[in-house]
Write a structure and sequence with these properties.
By secondary structure, the chain is of the alpha/beta class. It has 2 domains: 228 residues, Alpha-Beta Barrel (TIM Barrel), CATH 3.20.20; 73 residues, Four Helix Bundle (Hemerythrin (Met), subunit A). It is built from 17 helices and 8 strands. Strands 1, 2, 3, 4, 5, 6, 7 and 8 form an 8-stranded parallel sheet that branches. Helix 4 links the parallel strand 3 and strand 4. It is globular and about 55 Å long. The two termini are 28 Å apart. Belongs to the dus family. GO terms for molecular function: flavin adenine dinucleotide binding; FMN binding; tRNA binding; tRNA-dihydrouridine20 synthase activity; tRNA-dihydrouridine20a synthase activity.
Amino acid sequence: MMDWTDRHCRMFHRHITRHTWLYTEMVTTGALLYGDVARHLDFNGEEHPVALQLGGSEPADLAKSAKLGAQWGYDEINLNCGCPSERVQKGAFGACLMAEPALVADCVKAMRDAVSIDVTVKHRIGIDKVESYEFVRDFVGTIADAGCTTFIVHARNAILQGLSPKENREIPPLKPEFAYQLKRDFPHLEILINGGIKTLAEIDAHLQHVDGVMIGREAYHNPYMMAAFDARYYGDEAPVKSRAEVLHAMQPYIRTQLERFGKSEVGGGLRMNSITRHMLGLMAGMPGARGFRQTLSDSRKLASGDPALLLEALGRTQALAA
């Protein structure tokens, strides 16, 4: 979810669900150790619980980065062993790390020694033509021996050569039974499943076999699906914010962010589109959704920096009390 789940996206999602864990986009160790730490790690206090996802393969660098994450107040450090992009592979991390479980174990141990918060691993079920269940079983077993107790399983192989990241999310077949078997083989571990999950019914079905579910693109393209999560999965019966209430809640946030960063961020300052672009799917499946998206994508109106644009977009829908 690089370039997708930034702090503005997460703040928007937090207005929809109070309890769901939110994950950052993958942040590389190099970006933290040699770049602008605040730019990569700053987040809103309302985002909790929130996890920092790291990309890297050097135990010492990951330990330093995890320590930074803990100091900034993150609730979990997650090591990405699932991203198949060529850019990530050139850095010798992401899905290609699945070929080196001993190295991943060293990375996990180094991070666990550096922080007191949870260190988790997100991974695929195999790489390239390695499709046996035994491969991912042995990978998880090795990392678990280093003290990791939570694994987020993207239930597809990662094809490291010949497929784009987008194709890697669609072409390799999903094999949820691999995640289910991991839970049976490692009942003491927390096993979460990820990959192609789009409906509440699918989530419910997976939860019959594993401990949790991670939603990726669907949470971005159809974010209001998460409005059902608090009551359904966390037992919170507090009133759910309507779509209109979410938009009203985001207005002061946009105003504050523009006042704070409008002239300070790299690239000419923060623009309102940097926030509203994450909100285009709020009306997915509702009457007037197209008009809503068109209004929030109007470059001339966005240039005004007026958060009232959210209410103008709302006015073009027929879902005022959805």
